[in-house]
Amino acid sequence: MDNKKILGGLAAAAMAVSVATSSSAEPTNGGSMIVTYKDDVSTLDPAIGYDWQNWSMIKSLFDSLLDYKPGTTVLTNDLAESYSISEDGLTYTFVLREGVKFHNGRVMTAADVKYSLDRVTNPKTQSPGAGFFASVKGFDEASGGSGELSGVTVVDDRTVAIELSRPDATFLHVMAINFSSVVPQEAVEQWGEDFGKHPVGTGAFSLAEWSLGQRLVFAKNPDYYQAGLPHLDEIVFEVGQEPVVALLRLQNGEVDVAGDGIPPAKFLEVKNDPEYANAIVEGSQLHTGYISLNVKMKPFDNLAVRKAVNMAINKDRIVRMINGRAVPANQPLPPLMPGYDPDYKGFAFDPEAAKKMLAEAGYGEGFETELYVANTDPQPRIAQAIQQDLAAIGIKAEIKSLAQANVIAAGGEEDQAPMIWSGGMAWIADFPDPSNFYGPILGCGGAVPGGWNWSWYCNEEIDARAVKADAMTNPADAAEREAMWRKIFTDIQDEAPWVPIFNEQRFTIRSDRLDGPDGIFVDPVHIPVHYDTVYLKGGQ
Amino acid sequence: MATYILRRLMEAVFILIGITMITYALLYLIPADPVRQIAGRSATPETVENIRQQLGLDLPFYEQYWRYVSALFQGDLGRSYLQKTEVSELIASRLPASLLLMVAAISLELLMGLVMGTISAVRRNSAVDNSLMVISFVGVSAPQFVVGIIFLYIFAVKLNWFPIGGYGTFHHLVLPALTLGFMGAGWYSRMMRSSMLNVLGQDFVRTARAKGLGKARVIVRHAVPNALLPIIAMIGIDIGIFMSGIVVVESVFGWPGIGQLAWQAIQRVDIPIIMGVTLVAACSIVLGNLLADIIAPFVDPRIKLK
Known about the structure:
Chain A is 25% helix and 20% strand. Chain A has 15 helices and 22 strands.
């Protein structure tokens, strides 16, 4: 898998910006497509699955109360027909669609919604997403194993009310992530720990076959509640295919989508080949690659040193090194995230000024430090470029190139890693809201042993502002809330705990049999393609 | 004979226990926390601790190891942390593919290696000898993933003779088996050549010739069986080399065997799978060596088992 693979899994958010192809007006129905992946699928249990490979598969097998419009980050109703929010912003009442059936034929009810939320927060489930539900009343008891989520009430078969313990402006996004998927209790109990291998949901597809290490087959759900979807009768996922081999097969017409994308070594060759001009769709992601500067370790406890490092790095050169698969960044938020500040200048590349600043801070002779990096290409090469830039202002950085898991472990210790290049492990938003870019990676909550805030930056004043912003649940306050977040992130960057390097672009390569709006090939949450809405040209 | 095999099998059990101990200790010592990976980025510290307790990873090393070994003796290899499946099920689903590949590769490397080595020895210092030895040199020294990709490019992409990766038919098997066997063929051809040269210079060969036997008969009936002796012992050891080779070759060709499983597990610190695959690999090496020792006296009556 390429550098977007994250151990903890992720849901990328992106928006299509390319207009490489045009799609035919009327989608056709029927047919089958083949998608390849290098790694076997770990699980299809929506409470457990949390990597970008199974994230979109789960989206096609299961439904949540809410979802996003295909190809966008706009929230829309899914299993919920409608919802209302109480005056105080603490109670959300969802009315379910009538007659939606699970793959086993049973009609889904409000009790299933409650069961699913109880299950995901129950510690026995070991869900990596349990923390998303922290604002639901009764979360502490439920996640402590001493009860259910008391805030979730079944009003009647089609109505469920969810009460929060504090206002949470991101709650509707939480109702759209996979961890909120509705599962039938009887199927979970039947399969126990193996539910992830025998998933039963209400989604557009159902699992028809799974040969471990070889392939999975998704078959169209004839009872799917959305009329006309999915367009395909079948999707075959072939696993265990190296990205280079998958690309060869795609070029040979044997494969429709290379799930792991275009391998870096072949990128320019394919990108510049006119034959594939229509096969590649480009989109932006809610991703930022950065260098964390550990503010608890000398000399990065000194603001002037952190600023100097920010000014020393030539980001354009790094973007060129990865063949232009990214745009240079100057702040933590990526350009497409609400709250991004297009007027913010950050720290411009200026080695001379950086050198002067270091001297004023008392490090005129430079200093020695360590730069941690994941050992998969192209990360060590990027680290070498950073190393050279630092050397130009007198900083000697030794590169510690380690397995991803070891870099993450080092970042989670207060006094271990002075600098980390985040490539391959960088943050990609779980949902398109700026708060998701704060708490775990820049807030005090993440600056704990084993946490993801590798710069160990913790500013309690900013933490308080973040809590205030997330309490603004009234849709009328959305603009004000966004402005608050904008200021939070630029204020953080003024203190330079990170060197934001670039925002990665996404490139999907597909066969010329496939059709559909470009947006679904670089969909914000469905990677590599929105399986429910893609179709074959002329119903091949 | 039976006592000998029994004694060797007993030894094997101790070797395997030793291997589990060393592997477990190494995995315990690496500074990566599997619990953090299972828990994901948004997990609260309570969730992390909870998972750690459920998996028994909060226990001291000797207790964790003891738990693992006691379960092992009951035939329980544990459950994958990230794939959420029984390790025995994962290995069982992938072992047939690896065994098939291994058998095909061993047959191919023996066939290629022995034929090349014999021809080289008989045609010593000729152009044929030199070119065969160049090929064997390439086989021994070229990295397997490079060989694999080149074979794929030539035979699958350009010539379209074989499918580009995958599993299921005889056609799928040829290229990975050839890639895996290519290195061994290089070794065997060089060994066979020197072994044959040694045998061809011995008195009994001269006697056979003097009796008036044909050249082909002398080589096939008298020289080759004697030259094979040192090579048979090698096949057992070869299984160990194969075990590392399949990790690479299975990944290149998308062959759904245990090598690929191991590679994925190592990247994600999925300890139960790493332990399970290590055990399978160790078992096959131990058994391979034992097999080579048992076969040796049948091939060469001068060797006796003690």
